[in-house]
């Protein structure tokens, strides 16, 4: 257990060809099982919400975040019908888990 007073938020960082994306997660242990092929774990047990975020610059994971538009997501991943079943699973499986402190992700910045 950390002695820090700053809560941490886990997220999966996906480095795209032109833009980078983030999905916030609550349970890294469930994510590990999901990535290894355990499809019995509902995504709702893993993700904090069903949103895909990116930074204003489009690159990296630091800075002000906002919800990525469908057009921005389609530019990177191609046409899709369902964010929850097509894009979020891909980000979870192909991205890298990282941590940020609360200071980095205040709601005013999202």
Biggest β-sheet: strands ordered side by side in the sheet = 2-1-5
State the end-to-end CA separation: 27 Å
Percent of residues in beta strands:
15-25%
Tally the helices.
3
How many strand elements?
5
CATH level-4 homologous superfamily: Ribosome maturation protein SBDS, N-terminal domain
| CATH fold type | Hypothetical 12.0 Kda Protein In Nam8-gar1 Intergenic Region, Chain: A
Average pLDDT for all residues: 86
Biggest sheet descriptor: 3 strands, antiparallel
| Oligomeric state as shown | single chain
Alpha-beta content class: alpha+beta
Question: Could you describe the 3D structure shown?
Answer:
Helix content is 25%, strand content 24%. By secondary structure, the protein is an alpha+beta fold. It contains 3 helices and 5 strands. It has one domain: 2-Layer Sandwich (Hypothetical 12.0 Kda Protein In Nam8-gar1 Intergenic Region, Chain: A), CATH 3.30.1250.10. The chain has a 3-stranded antiparallel β-sheet, covered by helices on one side. The protein has a two-stranded antiparallel ribbon with strand order 3-4.
List the helices and strands and how they pair.
Layout: E1 8-15, E2 20-25, H1 28-35, E3 53-55, E4 65-67, H2 70-77, H3 83-94, E5 96-101
Antiparallel strand pairs: 1-2, 1-5, 3-4
Pfam families: SBDS_N
Organism: Pichia inconspicua
Domain Ribosome maturation protein SDO1/SBDS N-terminal: 10-102
Observed structural traits:
110 residues; alpha+beta; two-stranded antiparallel ribbon; 5 strands; globular; disordered C terminus
């Amino acid at each position: 257990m950390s002695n820090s007073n700053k809560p941490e938020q886990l997220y999966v960082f996906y480095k795209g060809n032109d833009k980078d994306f983030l999905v916030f997660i609550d349970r890294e242990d469930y994510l590990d099982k999901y990535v290894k092929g355990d499809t019995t774990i509902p995504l709702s047990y893993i993700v904090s919400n069903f949103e895909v975020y990116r930074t204003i610059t489009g690159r990296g994971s630091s800075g002000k975040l906002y919800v990525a538009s469908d057009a921005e997501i389609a530019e990177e991943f191609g046409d899709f019908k369902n964010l929850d079943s097509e894009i979020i699973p891909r980000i979870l499986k192909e991205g890298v888990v990282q941590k940020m402190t609360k200071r980095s992700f205040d709601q005013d910045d999202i």
